[in-house]
Design goal:
Helices cover 27% and strands 30% of the residues. It has 275 residues and is of the alpha+beta class. The strands form 4 sheets. Strands 6-7-8-11-10-9 form a 6-stranded antiparallel sheet. A two-stranded antiparallel sheet has the order 1-2. A two-stranded antiparallel ribbon has the order 3-4.
């Protein structure tokens, strides 16, 4: 039988408020209050999420095992497993077979409402990234691309495919279509040293005045999975974007795929001033 001291440590109720704590590796302890109306499993989940959000637990830090959490807080392993599973589903932790559960790298917040590209957003966040050009080719615009860019039959576009890595790991695949008539020598430009958005603006005067974006989930094909270093069928964030110039004419259609475990979309809305 547990002694009173042991029961206090594990969080077993003794008829008075019991606050228990556990260092997740860094930062303050996780505290649970058994007299709170909030269920203990919710308290545990929120406390872990708070430590991760406050960077008290750094990325790739190992957290306690299911058994350690269970013993420490007097919770069943099934309950603890459910908490950790929810954290995994939210992309906050990840499991390594045979080694344990670790704090995940924070997701990058893409803000499509801003008139800047993902590269500038990464730079502002201080996140090191690199772009690899996979291919630049000229081809007759497929029907769907003709529709997006208001092109006629037989018109030619540049197809530019790039892979973006962050901290040395694949983040996204970017596929852009631009009418060749607007940038006839685009295939001669160094699109790894200078961002495509910047090249279009500086070299050809193509600047986005309006952007229409669609966001949905997609499953990784074998080719996508190979480039992004995930398994086929892995959940991706798919963003389709059409850029329009000041005259309202479309000049670039983009189809981007982001790893769902590394990217989230952030929107900001502001009420227009009253008339």
């Amino acid at each position: 039988m547990l002694s009173e001291a042991d029961r206090s440590l594990t969080g077993v109720s003794l008829g008075y408020p019991v606050h228990t704590g556990w260092h997740l590796g860094l930062g303050d302890q996780v505290l649970l209050d058994r007299l709170s109306p909030t269920p203990l499993h919710v308290q545990l989940e929120e406390a872990i999420k708070d430590q991760i959000a406050n960077e008290e637990c750094k990325p790739n830090t190992k957290i306690p095992s299911e058994n350690e959490f269970s013993v420490k807080y007097g919770l069943s392993r099934m309950t603890v497993r459910a908490v950790i599973t929810r954290l995994m589903q939210q992309g906050l932790v990840y499991r390594v077979p045979g080694k344990g559960t670790f704090v995940a790298e924070p997701k990058i917040a893409n803000r499509p409402h801003l008139m800047v590209g993902i590269q500038q957003q990464l730079d502002e966040m201080g996140v090191p990234s690199k772009v690899q050009v996979l291919s630049v080719s000229r081809l007759e615009a497929p029907g769907r691309i003709r529709k997006e860019l208001n092109l006629g039959p037989g018109e030619v576009v540049f197809r530019v495919e790039r892979l973006r890595t962050v901290n040395g790991e694949p983040l996204s695949i970017h596929l852009s279509y631009i009418p060749a008539s607007l940038c006839p020598d685009l295939d001669r430009k160094n699109l790894e040293a200078v961002q495509l958005r910047d090249v279009l603006k500086a070299e050809y005067g193509l600047r986005s005045d309006r952007i229409v974006t669609g966001v949905e989930t997609a499953l990784a094909s074998e080719g996508d999975a190979h480039l992004l270093q995930v398994k086929p069928g892995f959940t991706l964030l798919q963003m389709e974007e059409t850029n329009y110039d000041e005259s309202g004419a479309p000049f670039e259609y983009c189809h981007n795929l982001y790893r769902g475990d590394k990217m989230k979309v952030s929107y900001e809305f502001q009420r227009p001033p009253a008339d």
